Amino acid sequence: CCAYAAGDMPGTESASAIPTWHSCLLLLRLAPSSTKQCQPCEISHHTGAIWPLSTFSNIGHLAKMKRVSMPAIVAVVAGAFVVIIAGFMANRRHVSRLKNGGAPMPKHHPLFGHLIVLKEAIQSLPRNTVMHVVVRRIAESFPGGIFYLNLWPFNAPIMVVANPYVASQVEAAFLDKPANICDTLEIINGGPSLLTMHGSTWKKWRALFNPGFAAGYITGLSPAIAEEVAVFCKLLQDRAEKGEVFPLEEHTLRLTFDIIARVTLGARLYYQTQGSALADCLRRQVYWTQFGTTFNPIRRYLSPRPLVQKYNSYRMNQYLDKEIDKRFEELASSRGNSAKNSRSQSRSIIALAMDKYLNDVENKEEVSKSAFKQLAKPQLRLFLYAGHDTTSSTLLYSYLLLSRHPLVLSKVRAEHDQVFGPDFSLSNITQSITTDPTLLNQLPYTLAVVKEVLRIFPPAGSMRAGRPDLFLSDEHGQQYPTAGCQIWTLSLAMHHNPSVFTQPEDFIPERWLVGPDDALYPKKGAWRAFEWGPRACIGQTLAQLELKVALVMTVRMFDVQEAYGEWDEMHPRKGVKMVDGNRAYQAEMGGGGAHPVDGLPVRVTMRV
């Protein structure tokens, strides 16, 4: 769940969706009809930009109405342009103050701001490259790890942070997420969740779920996780017998969804083998949701997206209502049993939260049930969303990097032999994990591999809203204002910054095992796959446990080799296909995190 519980990166839209220099004019020409009145203040509040699209979309509608006079149409057009000019001037004054104060930024065009810089970065990359890869390309020109981007009228100015010293100040400031990011996340999650809540409300719900994500409790879930991974292994065996090239991602997504549903809801979905309406609806919801970065006006405004989102949300809530009702019934029954400790070992995360919630409201079950359901459903949808998408991508990149580094793979296999014995049959490994889940805590090198994979391919980043009273300082005392800006902690750029990590482009798990005197030892706060501080990812322990179980049960049984060459022969396409020489670059998929492009085509073979 690393990416979203930590960060909510809004830049998961593809590079091809970012505007070229003429996209502003296209928006004026193609905006659809609407009856909503222009509300520039509201637009500015939610998006950080003043762009009266609703006014322009009314023009064509008004022109068709005979009773509307030409002066009225002229007045609407004139008013719209006044708003645009006012927004443009306000933005340029803001950027001018930043530049005059010494704020680092790319070359700023008087009319198009940094849209041209963004366009040039996009054109050097494949069309579906995830946005944080695009901005990382720009960040390479700013080794200090901090700079500003002005993407008006599509967004408020963005302060990009790729410096751990500065990033630690961002987390310490307890900043809210920007309103446009919250709005998008609440479409996916169906309401306020731990990602979008603030203050006392966030503290209350975080406290309710903390027991279910505690390290000791999570370790006890290992047998259930192993049972789901065993299904995954059998499916890989079938693929290996067929000897075909296939995208591995569909299998890993179904695996991680089965796991997160089981540990949070206490329900087996059998998504890997039978399908699941809940999983399909959530994945469609993610696919149909964008973080405000779709600039194609037809795609953005002439789309069935709202209807699809409402339908998916309705179906998901139907399922969750039934599951919560079941957990309430089980809880009511179990409260009559005095053996509380034995019960708690087998209960799901939602059941633990439910128990604590009822205790907090003095066991008023009938009064509290309805309120809990309404507030808990967005949290459950968050866990299902964040707990399957990015964990799947990390598992894929783990297989990829291990296959590219045979020496590291041999060390991982040796560690597994030492801890679990040389018998790597599915039945033996599953039995070992079920009998003694704490064996998974004896895998320091495997955990180092997971951390190094997340360093090289972090699924997302973190976006926060600046404040007028907040100035961030670098190591040299230079101050950077945050007023009127969104602050993007760009983990990818930080993880690949040579002033932050030694040999940042190399896959070196040992960097996580050396002492502070070693040159490889990471700087404090530099690894931000799960973010830091009180609002760090609540599910990071679960995510790392899932990855360890999956690797323990698969890397000795299978050889997984990327097959992009064969895939490209079967599915030829023109254009740029690599990012920095890597064919398995991070691509976008709707509102989800960064995914290996084309779902990571592979060949799987059984090891003797």
From TrEMBL:
Output the InterPro entries linked to this UniProt entry.
Answer: Cyt_P450, Cyt_P450_E_grp-I, Cyt_P450_sf, Cytochrome_P450_monoxygenase
Q: Name one GO molecular function term.
A: oxidoreductase activity, acting on paired donors, with incorporation or reduction of molecular oxygen
Keyword Iron on this protein? Answer: yes
The residues the record assigns to binding heme are C537
In terms of Pfam families, this protein maps to:
p450
Supply the alphabetized keyword list. Answer: Heme, Iron, Membrane, Metal-binding, Transmembrane, Transmembrane helix
Bilayer-crossing residues are 72-90
Under Gene3D superfamilies, the record lists:
Cytochrome P450
Task: State its cofactor.
Answer: heme
The answer to keyword Membrane applying to this record is yes
Q: According to the lineage, what is the superkingdom?
A: Eukaryota
What this protein is called in its record is Uncharacterized protein
Q: Which organism is it from?
A: Phaeosphaeria nodorum (strain SN15 / ATCC MYA-4574 / FGSC 10173)
Q: What is the lineage of its organism?
A: Eukaryota, Fungi, Dikarya, Ascomycota, Pezizomycotina
